[in-house]
């Protein structure tokens, strides 16, 4: 049984902020609170398989967060919204440790939110590695940080 949601996200931006904050702090409970109670939620990690349902999604994030919080910054948000649905695309900037030191890796992500009785909730997160040479609009990411 899915736990009852305690946070009421009034906007999809609030839900998205909580999602990325939970990744940066390594808080699995907060991360899963952002997700909808719908049994058909979907998550696709870069290079990974499509995960459907709470158990699969939670297990994947638990494995990712078991090593450490994810140093990630969402930038360049593009949002489309109707009364009950919102689609956000962002450039996720991940800081990774390499032999040469820390390096920024960019991913494109799509976050889809639905509005229900418990506010705005995430129903789909799909992230894939972006090309090394982002287009000109994607390079100007600092002014549009979500948080």
Automatic annotation (TrEMBL):
Keywords: Isomerase. Residues 128-147 are annotated as: Disordered. It comes from the Bacteria. Residues 136-147 have a biased composition (Basic and acidic residues). Residues 17-129 form the SnoaL-like domain. InterPro entries: NTF2-like_dom_sf, SnoaL-like. The keyword Heme does not apply. GO terms for molecular function: isomerase activity. SUPFAM superfamilies: NTF2-like. The keyword Isomerase applies. This is Ketosteroid isomerase-like protein.
């Amino acid at each position: 049984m899915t736990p009852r949601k305690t946070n009421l996200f009034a906007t999809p931006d609030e839900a998205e902020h909580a999602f990325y904050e939970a990744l940066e702090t390594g808080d699995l409970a907060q991360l899963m609170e952002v997700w909808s109670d719908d049994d058909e939620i979907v998550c696709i990690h870069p290079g990974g398989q499509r995960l459907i349902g709470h158990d699969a999604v939670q297990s994947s994030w638990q494995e990712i967060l078991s090593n450490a919080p994810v140093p990630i910054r969402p930038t360049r948000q593009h949002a489309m919204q109707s009364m009950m649905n919102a689609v956000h695309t962002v450039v996720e900037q991940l800081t990774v440790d390499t032999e040469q030191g820390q390096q920024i890796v960019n991913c494109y992500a799509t976050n889809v939110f639905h509005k229900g009785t418990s506010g705005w909730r995430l129903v789909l997160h799909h992230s894939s590695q972006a090309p090394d040479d982002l287009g000109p609009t994607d390079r100007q990411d600092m002014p549009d940080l979500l948080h």
